[in-house]
Automatic annotation (TrEMBL):
SUPFAM superfamilies: Phosphoglycerate mutase-like. This is 3-phytase. The chain crosses the membrane at residues 45-66. PANTHER family: MULTIPLE INOSITOL POLYPHOSPHATE PHOSPHATASE-RELATED, PUTATIVE (AFU_ORTHOLOGUE AFUA_7G01240)-RELATED. Residues 78-109 are annotated as: Disordered. Its EC number is 3.1.3.8. It comes from Neurospora tetrasperma (strain FGSC 2508 / ATCC MYA-4615 / P0657). It is an enzyme of class 3 (hydrolase).
Amino acid sequence: MRSPINPQAPGYSPVGLAEKEELVLRPLLAHDTQPSPGQRLKRKLSILLASGAVSLAVLFAFNILACNGTLFGIKPRPSELASPTPLQARDDQRSSGEEDCPCKPTSTVPDYFNTSPGPWIGKTATGKAPFMAQTRTFDHAATYVPNAPLQTQVPIQGWHPGNLSIFGMMGFLTPYTPSTGFGVDEWPLPDGAEIIWLQMVSRHGSRYPTGGSNVESFGARLANATGKFNATGELEFLNNWKYQMGTEILVPRGRQELFDSGVLHAYMYSSLYDPNTKIIARTTTQDRMLRSAENFLAGMFGLEWPNNVTLEVIIEGSNLNNSLAGYMNCPNEREDGLGSAARDIWVGHYLQNATERFSKLVTGYNWTLDDTYAAQTLCAYDTVASGYSRFCSLFTYEEWIGFGYSHDLQFYGNNAFGSETGRAIGIGFQQEVLARLQNHTIPYSETQVNVTLDNNTVTFPLNQSLYLDFSHDTNIVSILAAFGLTQFEEDLPADKYPGEHNFTVSHMTPFGARLDIEIIKTPKPLKADRSGYEDEGEETKYVHFVLNQRTVPLGWSHPECDAERVDGWCEFETFLKVQEKMPGLARYKEVCFADGGSP
């Protein structure tokens, strides 16, 4: 039996609190030996250094194991690793003990729901901050029209009261405005009818120019001529002008366009949203696409929209499947320049006089047709970026008509029926809409559908009555072609303006454009002349296409839908039957990958 401690025994002394802590590191000594203070300090330092070295070694080994899954080439057995859930992203497959790992991702959200897409965000340079209160000019003696928020009341030679504003004829650079119509009147729902389903696809809002655009090149040419260049007359302001645009991201007007669109859709379709659910909306990784979606959702649901919507962000990159950017996986589309060639021919016609006019006002610089077209394009970009542009009044009203038509030629030949790949670019989205309408996922597709996402009801849900997607102007034009809307198929000459025509880009895909596909249920079949319901018949569903707040008459393109219908609707089953043949007309694999085109 161990002897009891005797406080009076030799070598024993009471131990204070500080010394108790010190004993943890003190080596075991015989009761009748006591270390000197120097020896005690030496031993403490040795033990501290040894403990520190062991700690560092353990930490180093832990980090190797946590980050690489191996330690000195030895991997843990699969049974020792926690199995991730099916929807966990690769970067999220870590245990709770690895919270401090330096390689741990900053987000536990799967890639396709991550709204900070990183390398896929595209170019994002911002431009000079606007200062319109100081930079704008106007005739103080004329009737004053306040800007709201852009100043679009500018003097245009040849414009008369009753003419369309030039800001409604700028092609794909047109600030959002409702379409003037597509040939039929708008009709309210008859008594007893109800909208039961909506698919929206929206373009992003007004933005800065894309990298390498003609306006950026124009600014560089003038900058290189500094010291030699001199302009007079209406071009005199160019002597002190500098190109200070950003690149591709939304401008304030663009944010407003999408926010306002969200507010409009809240008024139009909020009853289709079940407040007890959280829906999926889709966009792409480009910054302007992501921010457009966020501004729309804020407008529709409020700043707390993440409580209502999970935003699915699909990578937009070359050779990647993405129906919202269908051209990315159609290599031959990038080589198809028939529309661009037609545009260039037309520009040489309608801007010949303007080029001669401006050349006389410039010395020390060879002013070309490209400069004239870039200056006209700058009116549109400068206005949405800065609120006002001095480039706008340089051109006549007739030249603005020509400007809008130049984009009609470009889009028709590159992205619509004038291009062999036009239908193919939009066919993936067409297939997704039909899948949603027929309540099934897409396990296989010979289009640019992302099957990984579309064969999963988490990322491609089927139980929503409200679907919200965000895309690009060229893609939306191709979507219209993929649905077979041949009312937009027509001959557009490159050497003369044909007058009013159906394929007018300003009306189809301005900034913030939106296509709303409604499904409407009626208690009985509705008469084509809208005089009332048929006397007999059962509950009927109809499809209604609304592009920029105006009806696109489906019967004009598909006779099976009844061209005599004054409301432009198409009976639901008939619409599905008509759409079955669209993939065959698009010929995606053939036109996108033939003759050398490859992913």
